[in-house]
Amino acid sequence: MTGTAGERKAQLRAALESVRARVDRACLAAGRDPGEVRLLAVTKTFPASDVALLSDLGLRDFAENKDQEAGAKAAELASLRPDADVRWHMVGRLQRNKARTVVRWADEVQSVDSVRLATALDRAVATARERGSRTRPLDVLVQVSLDDAPHRGGCPEEELPELVSKITQLNELRVRGVMTVAPYGVDHSATFARFARIYRRLREDYPNLDEVSAGMSGDLEAAVAHGSTCVRVGTALLGGRELASRE
């Protein structure tokens, strides 16, 4: 690792203050309470030691996009900070055959985009609860596709109501809301405005949905302006991914 743990903590503190200031300014511009927007630290490729330092600085929510990396990191954090009150979120595309391992560490999966995946997760949670390795249902968000790109994942807009209906019938999943990733090379403000309309229509039938996960390091202001309640920030908080290779 380059530098000392103290130096890294100072770097993370400064970055955290900067990101929080951006969220505060975005909320002020939108006439919103900053307390309505949760900061989700995307720690993929970064070590558990960074997660530990961020938890020391008061962050509670952390996201990963690969099951294998996340499981090991969550276990290491539990060793580094056994009393840390953190929540782990899966934000990457998820294959059904990973359901059993994901439910071992994830408090929430933000990338549910099919009935088959939801069913696999439901069964995995039920099995984990039977074995005593899990004590609660799994929170999930439905990922909405705004560009119809299969490799990016997400449920097409026209299929969203049916998917949410199916998930609400499962015993071990709790649908909290929706998530999206802005397509490349588009007007993010217009994209998030469309996403907000989709969410509002969905909420007419499901008023308990209260989570809108949208916005990352480069576009969080536009997302907050259009109602995001969760911004997923990696680079602006932890630095460029090349830093993750430090020893």
Automatic annotation (TrEMBL):
Q: Which residues form the Alanine racemase N-terminal domain?
A: 36-241
Alphabetical list of SUPFAM superfamilies matching this protein: PLP-binding barrel
Listed A to Z, the keywords are:
Pyridoxal phosphate
The record's Pfam families line, in alphabetical order, gives:
Ala_racemase_N
Presence of keyword Iron: no
> Where N6-(pyridoxal phosphate)lysine occurs along the chain?
44
**Cofactor requirements of the protein:** pyridoxal 5'-phosphate
Give GO MF terms, alphabetically: pyridoxal phosphate binding
Q: Which HAMAP family match?
A: PLP_homeostasis (MF_02087)
What role does this protein play? Answer: Pyridoxal 5'-phosphate (PLP)-binding protein, which is involved in PLP homeostasis.
Family to which this protein belongs? Belongs to the pyridoxal phosphate-binding protein YggS/PROSC family.
Could you tell me which PANTHER family the record lists for this protein? PROLINE SYNTHETASE CO-TRANSCRIBED BACTERIAL HOMOLOG PROTEIN, PYRIDOXAL PHOSPHATE HOMEOSTASIS PROTEIN
Matching NCBIfam families: YggS family pyridoxal phosphate-dependent enzyme
**Protein name per the record:** Pyridoxal phosphate homeostasis protein
